[in-house]
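During the second year of the project, the team shifted from modelling isolated chains to modelling whole assemblies. The rationale, set out in the original proposal, was that interfaces cannot be judged from single-chain predictions alone. As a representative example for this report, we include one of the complexes processed in the last quarter. Its constituent sequences, exactly as entered into the pipeline, are reproduced here:
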Amino acid sequence: MDLTGVGYDIAVVGTSWGGLAALRQLVAGMPTTFGMALVLVQHRHKDSDHLLRVLLQERTELRVCEVEDKMPIEHGGVYVAPPDYHTLVEPGHFSLSTDAPVRYSRPSIDVTFSSAADAYGHRTVGIVLTGANADGSMGLRRISDRGGMALVQDPATAESPTMPAAAVLTVPRARVMPLTGIIDYLAGLPAGEPEREGA
Amino acid sequence: MALPVSDGRSLPGPPLAYNSDLERLEIELLLEGVFRHYGFDFRSYAFASIRRRLWKRVEGEGLHTVSELAARILHDPDAMERLLLDLSVNVTAMFRDPSFYQEFRDRVVPLLRTYPFIRIWHAGCSTGEEVFSMAILLEEEGLYDRARLYATDINDVVLQRARQGIFPLDRMQEYTENYIRAGGKQSFSKYYTAKYDGAIFKPELTRNIVFSQHNLVTDRSFSEFNVIFCRNVLIYFDKALQNRVHSLFYDSLVMFGVLALGSKESLKFSQYEPCYEKLSPTEKLYRKVR
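Output from the structure prediction step:
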């Protein structure tokens, strides 16, 4: 895969407690021309249904899907990680796994983030929002160390500060801002040219 | 640049300064070596998953690179055993996705009642949670005595465990809840006896189960089935291998036979979609129609 171009192909977002309101605000703030794939990992109960997807779809014109195995990753698509699976990012598509929970979480934000860093390198944006545990910080570090962009919600403005505070501690290079700042910043980042899988 | 420390909090994975092209080469060489020396073919597994599992084994062995792991497993069959468990054990639960079992009762059981004899294949049965769940369901529907369940897996160690029918006692609360929501008709505890930290399932439940080693990657079809279960196994395969296994399933199903996939698996991304119709609006139950 060509990793030399400018622009970002994929933004991965991790959140737990307080995440629903934050994610609704985030997707509502993305322009209809948003050029990256937007992947949302929200901790939730293993038996939760499609409600999260529906609640997000209400707030955006972009197409929101719940990830299925081998689903293609497309620019401008919004993807919700399904409950009770890990969502892994591969170049051009998703793979799922039922491997053991990581730090009690499945989906694990760390697993999605680090696979995105491995598949898309510096063309990855990682975003950690409100949450009541430390998931996501190691994965965000992987993204940052691979040259990707790390964004963290200012813990002081997060409904639950634990997750963003852990991310700031683990990734001191991360840009820290309130949710509205993250939304504007993300919407303004250059997106990569859509490329076909295997190209 | 500091490397991630193995404090148990860091993710298993390559060191930060790792060259990803080199890593892919190392992984491909290891998988080629495993195939040529031991005969297990993981070369068409989904890369992101196998990579995660390999790095976990690198850490577990106290090593630092995939190449070091390759050297160890080629010279040490015990290390290969450990890797095989890492790569081939799929974590599951009894009555995982209760709505799936409820839907199976509602939509597939009536079809099965029309057959004098029912052959069911659990492909990639792992430690047996699903096949025991199905034995219980069929027993409650009065179909078990005309059914034969073929439970296969690549890994002999997990098959041995499946045969024993002993599951961790501390999972029984979760499994009982699943069972009730799956439309269970009895008290779940009547199916097992608690002993130490295990729940020993009634041996009668295995009377019509045949456990056998079968490799989805390299072995051919071995019979014709009315139902094939393959839930959350194909997610570990790449798309080319998924298509090959779908071809095997297609050839192994009788006309109007039923294919049951995991709730986030789909025929949509395979070339066999036109051969099936959906049996359920919500669950991944498909019926072979051409």
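The CA atoms of residues 88 and 144 of chain A lie 18 Å apart. Helices of chain A lie at 19-28, 51-57, 109-120, 137-145, 162-170, 179-188.
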